[in-house]
Amino acid sequence: MSDNSFAAPWHQEGTSISKADGDSLDRLIEFNEKHNNKKTLHRFFLYTLIGYAFYTIVKYFLYTPAAFGNFAIVELLFTNKNIVRDVFFGAVLYFTSKFTFDLKEKAKDEYHSLRNEIVDLSNKEWVKKYDDKTNQEIYEYVKKHDIKINHKTK
User: Fold this and answer.
1) Which of 46, 61, 109, 128 has the fewest CB atoms found within 10 Å of its own CB?
2) pLDDT recorded at residue 152
């Protein structure tokens, strides 16, 4: 027989946890992973944008002597051909970062709404439906995924 010690308690044989409750918990874990992936992706693009903006500022404003005269920005735009490429790349990074932020917020809202729904179930129905040992197994397993289902938070 295979070792089911790493499997979710609701996937093990002989469990008293219903399939509907197990599916809800699986969806919660999936939404949490989706939210964490979107958060990591947003953080990557945001830090890339910050680094690139710092690099561009150093490149054009600290090492360009014409940057401190009258109409320096206008002269710089028309005399240096690389600045258009750099500004375009910065804009692409900005809008990508904004897009990933929106994706992250949508995933966060989905995760929190499902989590609050499960917290309501766990506080009302699961306590009555399952014994203390089963409830403890459920709480411990989802706690491994950094999910707390015993109280509501945002």
Assistant:
1) 128
2) 62
pLDDT beyond 80 at 30: yes
Query: Tell me, what amino acid is at 63?
Result: Y
C-beta of residue 9 within 8 angstroms of C-beta of residue 123: no
- In tens, the pLDDT along 110-130 reads 998 888 888 877 666 766 777
Tracing tokens 């766990």 back to the chain, one arrives at 122
| Nearest-angstrom CA–CA distance, 38 and 80 | 37
Half-sphere exposure of 145 (CA within 13 A, CB side): 22
142 phi and psi angles, rounded to 5 deg: -70, -25
Burial class (CB in 10 A: 0-12, 13-18, 19+), 118: buried
